[in-house]
Amino acid sequence: MRQAGTHIASSAETTLVMPRHVSAQQQRQISHLGQAFQPRPAASKSSWRELVGVKGQIAATTIERENPLVHAHVVPEGSYIIHDFRCDRVWVWVDSNGIVTREPRIG
């Protein structure tokens, strides 16, 4: 059973209902917080084998379009990189001609 309240925001997954004693300003603030914490869409790809042999900038653009939660970084072969794992980063390794030499993957 639903309690009486004022409906202030809804999406396909969430509906916020405020008690009637909450001010309009408080409702706006709470509604804004609810929107900020909506779940992100699941990313479908974590590696791009099909991009080996493609120009690095084209590969980076493709990666970011197919998975908007990551940033692709074009890196020349032999460059030093930091070795920490990050789920929002993809290294795109390229040769001296700017062609992808390794399978880009999240990390």
TrEMBL record:
InterPro entries on file: Prot_inh_pot1 (IPR000864), Prot_inh_pot1_sf (IPR036354)
SUPFAM superfamilies attached to this UniProt entry: CI-2 family of serine protease inhibitors (SSF54654)
Annotated GO MF terms: serine-type endopeptidase inhibitor activity
Signal peptide: none
Pfam families in alphabetical order: potato_inhibit
Keyword Membrane: no
Keyword check for Cell membrane: no
Gene3D superfamilies found in the cross-reference section: Trypsin Inhibitor V, subunit A
GO biological process: response to wounding
This protein's UniProt keywords: Protease inhibitor, Serine protease inhibitor
Family of this protein: Belongs to the protease inhibitor I13 (potato type I serine protease inhibitor) family.
Protein name: Inhibitor of trypsin and hageman factor
Organism: Cinnamomum micranthum f. kanehirae
